[in-house]
Design a protein that fits this description.
mainly alpha; 8 helices; binds fe (ii) ion
Length: 214
């Protein structure tokens, strides 16, 4: 049954993200990562659970900091619920396997990305920095979920990661669209290309670890 779902998923993917660069990322993940990750699936699931928690928290922070931005509030309110739903589902996958959630691990990737944020500027420029940062994390997560979906032998998790990949790819589009609501398209495109290049540099320097989603 799950094999059929995976096959259907592989077919459907053509319409969603035919090539990974639709996500804009300049540097694909080292293919060795997914093999190491599969061997450390407990660590990956724990790290993943906290990625979902941070995604939900980040959307809540944006709503609280920018309550006057109607499109943002409208678009991100359901995303909070979706991300928290992902958190619940990852915790359930941990539980089914007899693993515990455990403590949050240091998020080296997100820390490095935070260093890219431009200081100062207008309130809208600051908002766009945050939206693009979220878009980057969503894009990289979707790319990693795609690798897990395509490569891991655990069919339940494979289908799970397919679903989540589609969801995070949708969020990536939401954040980019919101950024273009608050600053001119040309400005956003330019800044986005810069951040993609900087993210690729960060990825290049990062150690490949099987206990981290990023
Ligand atoms: Fe998520
Ligand atoms: Fe997401």
């Amino acid at each position: 049954m799950f094999s059929i779902l995976v096959l259907i998923g592989r077919f459907m993917i053509n319409g969603v993200m035919k090539d990974k660069f639709k996500l804009g990322l300049e540097l694909p993940t080292d293919p060795r990562w997914v093999n190491i990750a599969e061997k450390n699936i407990e660590d990956i699931l724990v790290d993943h659970a906290y990625c979902e928690q941070k995604a939900a928290s980040s959307c809540i922070s944006l709503i609280v900091q920018y309550p006057e931005k109607e499109e943002l509030v409208e678009m991100l309110t359901p995303v909070v619920a979706e991300e928290w739903g992902h958190f619940e589902r990852v915790v359930e996958e941990l539980r089914k396997r007899g693993y515990k959630l455990g403590k949050q691990r240091k998020d080296i990737y997100v820390e490095a990305l935070n260093g890219l944020l431009k200081k100062g500027g207008s309130r809208d420029e600051q908002l766009v920095e945050k939206l693009l940062m979220n878009a980057l994390i969503e894009a990289r997560s979707a790319e990693r979920f795609r690798l897990l979906w395509k490569n891991i032998s655990d069919q339940v998790l494979s289908v799970f990661y397919y679903e989540l990949m589609v969801s995070e790819a949708g969020h990536y589009k939401n954040f980019l669209q919101l950024a273009k609501t608050y600053m001119p398209e040309e400005y956003v495109e330019k800044r986005w290309r810069q951040l993609l290049a900087d993210e690729a540099e960060i990825m290049k320097k990062m150690e490949i670890r099987g206990d981290r989603m990023h």
